[in-house]
């Protein structure tokens, strides 16, 4: 198997509060992006990581990755390309830098710095074993309610349904794809003007099949300030 990973890291991450772009925020003194790239490079399957950086921050990101000696480490090459206005555009631009010799492409958010290598391996293996698209996922702790529009601004939203929790999963990254499948759905989405929050969603939209492998609670996404507190605690436990 020859796998490449695309890491969209061109977002600002404003929900985390003011400061540096989210991918460059530090966890245990090391940028989230560096953690995420290391987690991918740890997988034997991954030979190339394409980091998609903010357009005005490409040189800075390249210098950062070099500072941590990531290029060539663990037998994994690192490329840095400029991103786009949306996550989807950033992934498409990253995918364009993946050579045709690669058969499996993983897409991993820089905002999931602590994903265990077993999850990365399981996703890549499931694609190599024949799936066209694979997502790691975990059961939900919370019951989920579907809500409708409020009767008037400022009024509470009415609950309109309660999906059966046992059939729901929270989806993480890396998501894995056969390269040509991911290319095809991104090309179609560009032509159709479709914007999706995750890549597997594009595969579903265009009639492909997506399967689930077990995710991991430590692969959570660092979105809000509390997530950073939790991530620091997980890292401290790993280091002790
Ligand atoms: O905003 P959100 O947390 O959903 O972003 C998910 C990932 O997509 C982040 O790693 C972010 O840096 C990336 N992204 C990007 N280009 C954008 C917007 C988000 O690469 N224009």
Q: Please identify which CATH superfamily we are dealing with.
A: Spore Coat Polysaccharide Biosynthesis Protein SpsA, Chain A
Sheet bearing the most strands, described?
8 strands, mixed
Query: Percent of residues in beta strands?
Result: 15-25%
* 3D shape: globular
Bound molecules: cytidine-5'-monophosphate
Structural class assignment:
alpha/beta
Find the CATH topology. Spore Coat Polysaccharide Biosynthesis Protein SpsA, Chain A
Q: So how many helices? A: 7
* Euclidean distance between termini CA atoms: 34 Å
CATH architecture: Alpha-Beta Complex
Count all strands and give the number: 12
CATH class: Alpha Beta
Unreliable segments of 5+ consecutive residues: none
Total discrete domains:
1
In round numbers, the mean pLDDT is 94
User: Radius of gyration over alpha carbons?
Assistant: 18 Å
Order of helices and strands: EEEHEHEHEHEEEEEHHEH
Q: Level of helix content?
A: 25-40%
Structure description:
This protein has 240 residues and is α/β, with parallel strands linked by helices. The protein has one domain: Spore Coat Polysaccharide Biosynthesis Protein SpsA, Chain A (Alpha-Beta Complex). It is built from seven helices and twelve strands. The chain has helices at 32-41, 58-67, 87-95, 117-128, 179-192, 199-205, 225-239; strands at residues 3-8, 26-27, 30-31, 46-53, 77-82, 104-107, 133-139, 146-147, 159-161, 169-171, 175-178, 211-214. The strands form three sheets. Strands 1, 4, 5, 6, 7, 10, 11 and 12 form an eight-stranded mixed β-sheet that branches. It has a two-stranded antiparallel sheet with strand order 2-3. The longest helix has 15 residues, at 225-239. The radius of gyration is 18 Å and the shape is globular. Pathway: Isoprenoid biosynthesis; isopentenyl diphosphate biosynthesis via DXP pathway; isopentenyl diphosphate from 1-deoxy-D-xylulose 5-phosphate: step 2/6.
């Amino acid at each position: 198997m020859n796998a490449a990973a695309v890491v969209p890291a061109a977002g600002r991450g404003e929900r985390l509060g003011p400061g540096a772009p989210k991918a460059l925020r530090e966890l245990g003194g090391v940028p989230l992006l560096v953690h995420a790239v290391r987690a991918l490079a740890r997988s034997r399957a991954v030979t190339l990581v394409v980091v998609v950086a903010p357009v005005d921050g490409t040189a800075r990101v390249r210098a950062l990755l070099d500072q941590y000696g990531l290029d060539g480490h663990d037998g994994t090459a690192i490329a840095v390309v400029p991103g786009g206005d949306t996550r989807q555009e950033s992934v498409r631009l990253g995918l364009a830098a993946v050579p045709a010799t690669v058969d499996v492409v993983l897409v991993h958010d820089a905002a999931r710095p602590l994903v265990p290598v077993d999850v990365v391996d399981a996703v890549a293996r499931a694609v190599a074993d024949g799936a066209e698209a694979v997502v790691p996922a975990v059961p939900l702790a919370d019951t989920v309610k579907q809500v409708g529009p409020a009767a008037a601004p400022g009024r509470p939203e009415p609950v309109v349904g309660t999906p059966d929790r046992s059939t729901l999963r929270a989806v993480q990254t890396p998501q894995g794809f056969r390269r040509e499948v991911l290319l095809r759905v991104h090309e179609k989405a560009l032509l159709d003007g479709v914007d999706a929050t995750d890549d597997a969603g594009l595969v579903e939209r265009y009639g492909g099949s997506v399967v689930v492998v077990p995710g991991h609670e430590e692969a959570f996404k660092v979105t809000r300030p509390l997530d950073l507190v939790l991530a620091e605690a997980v890292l401290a436990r790993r280091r002790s």
